[in-house]
Fold this sequence. Notes:
Pfam families: GDPD (PF03009). This protein is α/β, with parallel strands linked by helices. It has helices at 61-67, 73-79, 107-115, 142-145, 152-155, 184-187, 204-207, 228-238, 260-273, 288-297, 299-302, 329-334, 360-367, 403-415, 426-434, and strands at residues 89-94, 118-127, 133-135, 160-163, 174-176, 191-192, 223-224, 241-246, 284-285, 306-308, 339-341, 348-350, 356-358, 371-377, 419-422. It contains 15 helices and 15 strands. The strands form 4 sheets. Strands 1, 2, 3, 8, 9, 10, 11, 14 and 15 form a 9-stranded mixed sheet that branches. Helix 3 (107-115) packs parallel to helix 8. It is globular.
Amino acid sequence: MKRIPFLTTFLLLSSLTGCDDDVKIVEKEVVVTNTDVEIVEVPTPVIVEVAQGTNIQLGTRPDYLVDDMASSALKTKLESCKEGPFYRTDFSIGHRGAPMQYPEHTKESYIAAARMGAGVVECDVTFTNDKELVCRHSQCDLHTTTNILAIPTLAAKCSEPFTPANSNSGTPASAKCCTSDISLAEFLTLEGKMDGANTSATNVSDYMKGTPSWRTDLYATSGTLMTHKQSIALFKELGVKMTPELKSPQVSMPFNGMTQTQYAQKMLDEYTQMEVPASRVYPQSFNLADVEYWINTNPEFAAQSVYLDGRDSNVGFDPNNAATWQPSMAELVNDGVKIIAPPIWMLLSIDNNSNIVPSQYAIDAKAAGLNIIAWSLERSGPLKQGGGYYYQSISDVIDNDGDMFTVVDVLAQDVGVMGIFSDWPATVSYYASCNNMPASI
């Protein structure tokens, strides 16, 4: 505190009590001494540059997750942010949009993701029988993600027709319907539904009612399917960046004369045709050859091409044993890879004090100079039983939904990921805004 003493003397004048009254001047001396003036230092506000026109609505789920956390400094920090402000950030990536509650890869799901602060939104890219690119997680998932089986003329074109469950033989109900079975025009007549199938069903109607109990059908009455180009136009309108994933074909390539490299190039060409700067696109693939093709032939996209690492399906793979990773992190970097994206569990381990810490995979990836993206938060159901596939390396210390924020914090602060895919982007957006992470511009 600074003290500023001062002495001031002034006259106190009496005023007229009426228009004709005499004026009396009374002289008084008032002395003020040793007055303390406190100068308060006001913290400089954090100014975050945010894109205009955003309308971020995170809803109540982040509050629920914070309330469910065990007492900790992280919980206290997150509790202090409940009133916002919240903003869009590239740290939050909409995995297929917001498929926890909206049909994946639909217009409605994409809009929900953007509203929840996702700065980047994903369109998984596959193709129809007339070689047009569309947004679907898999080339052959129409029987579980759309109403195709309820449209007899299109169901008849499926690679494998609906077969009812047979309780006597124990054979589950099945079907296989692919985008490559139908034309683009036919594809656009379909409606998206929540991904799932009832394999005990004996009829199509019951087969289509397979939504997991921890999701919802409330917003699944008329999901709008989209072509790849339509998704680009929507993402431009929403002001988000784009991460298209080139899906592995489930038909022999070349397909109707289209080779794998032509397929990979066609995806990037559609961004160029629609005047999207390469800096706003993160093309990704599980096929390392696709990523290397983009790096070597499309230099403007090279820095943001993403290698999705699914090598955990290899026998003997261990994220804490570098000898089981082929190619090595250094070899990936030498091939020009800049960004690697493994599932969450491959990046995390447990130390001797039961703390969640970076795995050797995460440590070596950062040491090699790779940027990391993790997938996918909110993809599992409730975490009470350990969280399933995405948390398998840390299941022994996961027992409530609030642990999701602990996982996000370790990924952000200790692993140092550049972004996290989520099926409900509000959770990651809440964390990013609370920690003043860079806004999406």
